[in-house]
Amino acid sequence: MTTPRQSRMSWACGVLLVATVVQLLVAVLVPELPQFSGKAFTARLVAYPVLMLALPVALRLTHRLDTRGWTAGALVMAPFLVDVTGNTLDLYDRLVWWDDWCHFLNWALLMSGLGLLLDADGRAPRLVRALAIAGLGSMIAIVWELGEWFTFIRFGTELADAYTDTLGDLCLGSLGGIVGAGYALRSTRHS
User: Fold this and answer.
1) Whole-angstrom Cα distance, residue 118 to residue 6?
2) What is the C-alpha separation between 180 and 86, in angstroms, rounded?
3) Of the given ranges (18-32, 41-55, 83-97, 143-157), which has the lowest mean pLDDT?
4) In whole angstroms, what is the distance from residue 42 CA to residue 44 CA?
């Protein structure tokens, strides 16, 4: 039986997905807009919806799509909307701190969501869970930065600053993962 909260969270996931995909379609269909230039939006149009739907689909297939699952899904989906909206509004070029803030915020959101599902019944000691969530956040940050490198940095205009930017992004993503771990542990303790 679906609870009202599950219903609200499933709607939230739908809104996050649609808002992200609509902006990605604009970026791909109107490529002459400068804020989308050289940022691999065709690849994002394919990858982002797949990544956004991966968790809810996996939870549905394993019959774990309950309130916690929908909440985790929304937290995992939100960073994709934040990223695309930042590009749509040209915040990455207009605000020097936006990229840094997004790496911190998006990893905090992402790891909060994934952390809600990692050992949700609390069998492992809290410190082990915290380290696992934060470590997973750091690993995902590394994979993300490799993806950025291969899709648009190595051939783009940002190559000169790529090393410094990547180190900063990795640090901020890892710190966001630590914050996400704290949120997940706090949320699972109170549920």
Assistant:
1) 19
2) 21
3) 143-157
4) 5
Token pair listed for 171:
């640090």
pLDDT band at 191 (very low <50, low <70, confident <90, very high): low
Residues 6+ apart with CB under 8 A from 171: none
Global pTM reads 0.89
Q: Are 38 and 152 in contact (CB under 8 A)?
A: yes
Render pLDDT for 77-123 as a digit per residue (tens, 0 to 9).
999 999 999 999 999 999 999 999 999 999 999 999 999 988 777 78
Q: Are 25 and 45 in contact (CB under 8 A)?
A: yes
CB 100 within 8 A of CB 142: no
Tokens of 66: 């309950």
How far is 68 from 62, CA to CA, in rounded Å?
A: 14
Provide the pLDDT for residue 162: 80
| Unique residue bearing structure tokens 């969530």 | 133
CA separation for the pair 76, 66 (Å, rounded): 15
Tokens found for residue 155: 């051939």
Do 19 and 81 meet the contact criterion of CB atoms below 8 Å apart? Answer: yes
119 phi-psi bin (left φ>0, alpha ψ -120 to 50, beta other): left
Rounded to whole angstroms, the Cα distance separating 115 from 160 reads 35
